[in-house]
Each structure stands twice: as structure tokens, then as C-alpha cells.
Design goal:
It is a single chain. The protein is built from 22 helices and no strands. Helix content is 71%, strand content 0%. The termini are far apart. The longest helix is centred in the first third of the chain and has 26 residues, at 88-113. It is mostly helical.
């Protein structure tokens, strides 16, 4: 065991390096310089403002938190436009760097929690664990500019979940109280600066873990730290909600319709979409319902194991991941279902957040498997089945990557001569064609993106 701990066996390192290299090659092959979707809206006004006007911190910190834009993202955007000339791939590969950090964090956390004597079993478990993080089913976020704020946000969330886990296990001391105070304050900063519309899931996960600790452990020494952290997250959530510019969200939430049945369907679609390719939803909802139901049953089973085996004494991390994923699903359904329909809930962009729930799910089954000396084949089959589904889904994304490359390259070709294309053709940018035309002229005028050379 000592030999393995001293890294004389490098097989697990090859897994980490191999997955990182695969992600790098995938993004290098698939992506291009030209942005698409929301980034064209208002581009003709926003870019001159960033390039010609001084940095306005008041304006930056009053951006609506409900959108993908947040203060940190907006600050980075000044560098992105001024220094890197609005090159979409710069943002993508910057975000990919945070994906690599997430890989490494999960890698370290895995070895801290799972140390079987059987090295082959350890490596197999690590591969499945890492596949959950590597999940190419989140291709839409991976290939867009918003990969940077999304992956940075997920990295911070994971670090916070792990950090709270360690804090709750520490013995009472002045140092622990100081760390808890700093942790609670940092949570409020995170909610305001980087959380975007996902702060309810983050705050709920932190609050849920603290409540579980107070209810299940009955440790009086943790009362003050837990209550303080709960109050910080509650205040941060309330403050972020009150300062949100709700006028920017009227399209998403103003439409009528969508009963409880539709919400349940949306919930199952989002669960199923975590481990099934998005093309499945285009063909039929049935498969997504079946897989989503299966995952939900596994979650219930996992939680029964977690509480019956008292795994809370080992880690709160998996439960925080599950709480975050489930609350995020509810928030997304509330914001998207009525205005955009069930199909919008099966898109790849939400897999970034639901994958955290999958990570928590696998962690619970791995913990149970290890606790029973790796003899319960039922747990092994569940873990292998989930890993196989993610692997097959990622393989499918790799197989169709040439078509995605062709699509992104076609945007560059249209941008070079937009006058040769109709508005219908320019709708491929997934934005208002007139906004695209004005945006292209702005990019040309300021020699940005493909015109920067």
C-alpha cells in the first residue's frame, strides 16, 4: 500500500492525464474562433463600450445575477475583448484549464476516501469516478465562451463542499471558529460574484449539510459554526435575489401553462439527460423518462444507504452534491419550462450542474461498497452501469464531433461574407440575424475575432 501511496504505480495518473489530453484534443478539434448564441445580442453596442469607455465597476456589479453574466465574468470580459480580441477559443481553453483543476481535485479527493488493497479495483473505481467529471454530454457548455465562468463556478462549489466537510469534522478551537466565519463570509461573496442563477442550489447544499450536522451529530461545539454559516448563505441568497434585475427574466417566467405533470416530466428529462446523449430527447421522451426514473430510484436507494449506514460520519460531500443538483433542476425547470417547453430541459448546457448529483450518487455507492470489503456485487453493478452510460454517451459525442466542427466552421465562413447569406442562413448562429449582421460589422471595424490577424 505504501508503494502505491508513494506513486510508484502510475496507472491512475495516466487516467487523469489521458482524460485531460482527450478533452484538450476534443475542444481543439471541435471549436472555432467565432462565438454563437447569446453573445451576439447587443454585441454592436457592448464591444465599443468595452473598448472605448473606462471600466465602470458600478455597472459591472449591478449586472443581473439571473443571467450567465456575473460580475467576475464581466471583469474578465474586458481582458477577453481588449487583449485577446474576442477570440472564442481563448475563453474555451481558459475554461478548460479549470476543468483540469476539477479533475485533479476529484482525483485527490478519491484517493483520500477510497483506498482498497486491490489496485485494479482502485483504478477501475477512479476511472468511473473521473468519467463523471469528464462527461462529454455537457458538450454545449464545453464549446461555448461560458465554459470559463461555468467551470470556475463548479470548481469553487466543489472546493466549498469539501471544505465544509473538513470544517464540520474539526475539533472545536479558536482556529475552527475563525475558519467558519471566513467560510460563511466567502459563501456570500461567491453567491454575489460567480454564482449566476445557480446560487439557490449552492446555498441549499451548504445549509442542508449544516442542518444535517446539527440534527444527526448533536455536537454542541458545532452549533455556532453551523448557525453562522446558515445565516450567511441565507442572507447572501436573499440579497442576491433582491438585487436581481427581474425585468431580464420576463420571457422565461411569464408564459402561462405547465402543470405538476409537466414539472415531473421535466425533472425526469433533466435527470436522464445527465447520462444520455441529447439526440435521444429529439427522437423520443420515453427513453429520457425511463432513465430519469431509474436515476431517481437510485438516488432514493443511495440516500437510504447513506443514512442507514451513517455515512454522514464519513462525509457530507455526496449529499451536498445531490442537494445542489436537485435544487438546480427545480430552479431551471421553473425558469425554462413555461417559456421554452420540455425540449429545452434536455439540452446539454444543464449537464454541468446535474453531473454533480451523479458524482454524489457514485460516491455513496463507492463508500458502501468499500464498507462491505468490496463484496457486495450489487453496488459494483450500479457503479459500473452508471460509468458505462456516461462512457457510451461520451463516445457518441466523440463520434459526432466532426459534424460539430463542420457546424462551427460554417459560422466562420458565413461571418466572412454575411451579405451572401439570407437571414434564414444566419439563424445558424442561434441569434437574431440582424444582431449577427451588426455584430459582424462591429468585429470587422475593431479588427476582432477572425479579423484580428
Amino acid at each position: 500500500m505504501k508503494d502505491f501511496d508513494r506513486s510508484k504505480n502510475f496507472k491512475d495518473s495516466f487516467i487523469l492525464i489521458g482524460l485531460c489530453l482527450l478533452l484538450f484534443l476534443y475542444l481543439l478539434f471541435v471549436t472555432d474562433k467565432m462565438p454563437y448564441m447569446d453573445y451576439w445580442n447587443g454585441m454592436s453596442v457592448y464591444i465599443p463600450h468595452v473598448l472605448n469607455d473606462p471600466v465602470n465597476l458600478k455597472e459591472i456589479f449591478h449586472l443581473p445575477h439571473i443571467l450567465h453574466w456575473n460580475p467576475l465574468y464581466s471583469l474578465v470580459d474586458y481582458i477577453y475583448i481588449r487583449v485577446f480580441k474576442f477570440n472564442n477559443q481563448v475563453y474555451i481553453f481558459s475554461g478548460m484549464a479549470f476543468s483540469f483543476i476539477i479533475f485533479y481535485i476529484i482525483y485527490r479527493y478519491y484517493h483520500q476516501n477510497f483506498r482498497p488493497e486491490n489496485k485494479k479495483l482502485l483504478i477501475t473505481g477512479l476511472l468511473i469516478y473521473m468519467l463523471m467529471v469528464f462527461n462529454l454530454n455537457q458538450w454545449e457548455i464545453l464549446t461555448m465562451s461560458c465554459i470559463l465562468p461555468f467551470m470556475f463556478r463548479i470548481m469553487i462549489y466543489i472546493l466549498c463542499f469539501m471544505g465544509l466537510d473538513r470544517l464540520l469534522k474539526k475539533d472545536a478551537s479558536a482556529g475552527k471558529y475563525i475558519c467558519c466565519i471566513l467560510f460563511g463570509i466567502s459563501n456570500m461573496i461567491i453567491i454575489f460574484l460567480i454564482s449566476q442563477a445557480y446560487y439557490p442550489g449552492f446555498a441549499s447544499a451548504i445549509i442542508g449539510a449544516c442542518l444535517l450536522n446539527l440534527i444527526l451529530i448533536h455536537d454542541k461545539k458545532n452549533i455556532f459554526p453551523c448557525i453562522f454559516i446558515i445565516l450567511c448563505n441565507a442572507l447572501g441568497t436573499a440579497g442576491c435575489y433582491l438585487t436581481t434585475d427581474m425585468s431580464t427574466t420576463t420571457i422565461a417566467v411569464s408564459s402561462e401553462g405547465g402543470g405538476i405533470i409537466e414539472y415531473i416530466k421535466g425533472f425526469l428529462i433533466m435527470l436522464g439527460g445527465t447520462i444520455t446523449p441529447t439526440f435521444v430527447l429529439v427522437r423520443t421522451h420515453i427513453i429520457s423518462y425511463i432513465i430519469g426514473t431509474a436515476i431517481f430510484i437510485l438516488v432514493v436507494y443511495a440516500l437510504i444507504l447513506y443514512f442507514s449506514k451513517k455515512q454522514n460520519h464519513i462525509a457530507y460531500f455526496p449529499v451536498m452534491c445531490l442537494i445542489y443538483a436537485f435544487v438546480s433542476i427545480v430552479i431551471i425547470i421553473m425558469g425554462r419550462l413555461k417559456g421554452y417547453g420540455l425540449e429545452s430541459l434536455g439540452t446539454s448546457r444543464y449537464v454541468v450542474d446535474t453531473t454533480l448529483g451523479l458524482l454524489g450518487l457514485v460516491h455513496i455507492f463507492m463508500t458502501s461498497y468499500q464498507a462491505e470489503d468490496f463484496k457486495n456485487k450489487r453496488y459494483a453493478m450500479i457503479i459500473l452501469a452508471l460509468g458505462a452510460m456516461v462512457f457510451l454517451s461520451s463516445c457518441f459525442e466523440l463520434a459526432i464531433s466532426p459534424f460539430r466542427r463542420q457546424y462551427y466552421h460554417s459560422l466562420v465562413e458565413m461571418a466572412e461574407n454575411p451579405s451572401n447569406y439570407s437571414d434564414e442562413d444566419l439563424s445558424s448562429f442561434q441569434a437574431d440575424p440582424q444582431e449577427v449582421r451588426k455584430g459582424i460589422e462591429t468585429l470587422k471595424e475593431y479588427k476582432l475575432c477572425i479579423w484580428s490577424d
